[in-house]
Amino acid sequence: MKNLMPKARNLILAALGTALLAGGATTAQAAQSSPTQAASTQAKPTIVLLHGAFADGSTWSEVTGRLQHDGYTVVAPAVPLRGIAADTSYLSGVLATIPGPKVLVGHSYGGALVSELADTADVKSLVYVAAFIPQAGETLGALNSQFPGSELGPQLVPISYPGGLDLGIKPENSRAVFAADLPVRQANVFVAAERPIAASAFDEPVAETAPATLPKYAVIPTGDHAIAPAAERFMAKRAHATITEIPGASHLVALSQPAAVTTVIERAAR
């Protein structure tokens, strides 16, 4: 028995050494995988969310939180609402500060800006949410009046000031046009913060058509009363966008159906 004890001890020590070496290899592998995982996280594109007319970045609040939870960097800049050329110029500067790949997402009027900005460096895909997808030379006003279903025109209110003319929305009818499927309290918060837009924005010809080579996705809320759903379908099909329709959703679909909108954006990001 005494002769066996040293042999047993040696066997145990050998086994422990093997285990420690294996543990060291596992640790080394983990150390090597960490940079890869970090690179994978960094490889996710930044999601740039552009709001529409009469709105601000808060229209993306529910979507923003979901995207951030899923590991995306999100930028939702304030659009000046001074017209397509002026807003595009400003947003070009914003995009220049964002490194790496980007997915551009436009709501409503923001869709026209997405198309204008599509050839910016590192833009990988485009998403249009209840949005205009115009082609070069078209105006948003003409596109929206081409199809029945929009109730926006009669609700516009001129706001004149020295040197210019803006358009606002009659607050008493804004919920019906923009947010019919939102709770009254939430819709009223949106109405209280509505921002006027330069009247010329709807008559200003778009300068660029989004490149045919970029993947495009369109979310069409069938209960939209601001942009006619028929107009949205026409523009999305013409642009060869992958279409997702959300039955009964309002123009503010990013607030009323944020999970569905987020799913489309993340599909575009992948």
From TrEMBL:
<protein>
    <submittedName>
        <fullName>Pimeloyl-ACP methyl ester carboxylesterase</fullName>
    </submittedName>
</protein>
<dbReference type="InterPro" id="IPR029058">
    <property type="entry name" value="AB_hydrolase_fold"/>
</dbReference>
<dbReference type="GO" id="GO:0003824">
    <property type="term" value="F:catalytic activity"/>
</dbReference>
<feature type="signal peptide">
    <location>
        <begin position="1"/>
        <end position="30"/>
    </location>
</feature>
<keyword id="KW-0732">Signal</keyword>
<feature type="domain" description="AB hydrolase-1">
    <location>
        <begin position="47"/>
        <end position="261"/>
    </location>
</feature>
<dbReference type="Pfam" id="PF12697">
    <property type="entry name" value="Abhydrolase_6"/>
</dbReference>
<dbReference type="InterPro" id="IPR000073">
    <property type="entry name" value="AB_hydrolase_1"/>
</dbReference>
<dbReference type="InterPro" id="IPR052897">
    <property type="entry name" value="Sec-Metab_Biosynth_Hydrolase"/>
</dbReference>
